[in-house]
Amino acid sequence: MIKILFVCHGNICRSPMAEFVMKDLVRKAGREEQFIIASKAARRDELGHDTHYGTKAKLRQMGVPFEKRKAALLSKSDYDAYDYLIAMDRENVSDMLRLFGGDPEKKIHMLLEFASLKREVADPWYTGNFDETYEDVLMGCKGLLEQF
User: Fold this and answer.
1) Is 8 considered catalytic here?
2) Which residue out of 89, 95, 123, 136 is catalytically annotated?
3) CA atoms of 3 and 47, how far apart (whole Å)
4) For 49-84, what is each residue's pLDDT tens digit?
5) What angle do CA 47, 49, 54 make, to 5 degrees?
6) Considering 13, 14, 24, 136, which one is annotated as catalytic?
């Protein structure tokens, strides 16, 4: 079982988008039994809130299934619980390194590393551009799935 946790600032835009896109890719590949995929927040700002309406609209437009959920906070125990801790930006990486006290098992990655890009996933909370974020997330998730 491959356990993947996507992490962003508030767990309402980018990380749930990545969670649902990755679940859809895995489902279409017929490999659902091989993965556990989830998402959490590095910060407390949006805890308990459902996925952002812009993320839901984009997923709906692209035919990616999603479900009602509540933003959840990353915890120290997540380091041992997951094989891959996938950040959307450098701040998320810093937050995880601080919480976990480092990354001795090299589990922390930036999502776009898997698309051979050295940049962050654009945050639609600030840009308002859910199309750009979706393209980033899709590229990263496809590249991540190819690792397995």
Assistant:
1) yes
2) 123
3) 22
4) 999 999 999 999 999 999 999 999 999 999 999 999
5) 125
6) 14
Predicted TM-score (pTM) of the model is 0.97
CATH topology of domain 2-146: Rossmann fold (3.40.50)
C-alpha distances (whole Å) from 48 to each of 55, 64, 80, 85, 128 are: 16, 22, 24, 21, 22
- Report the C-alpha gap between 137 and 148 in whole angstroms: 17
Q: Say which of 8, 89, 136, 141 is annotated catalytic.
A: 8
Residues 6 or more apart whose CB falls under 8 angstroms from that of 89 comprise 8, 9, 110, 120, 121, 123
Q: Is 14 one of the catalytic residues? A: yes
* Tokens coding 19: 């969670």
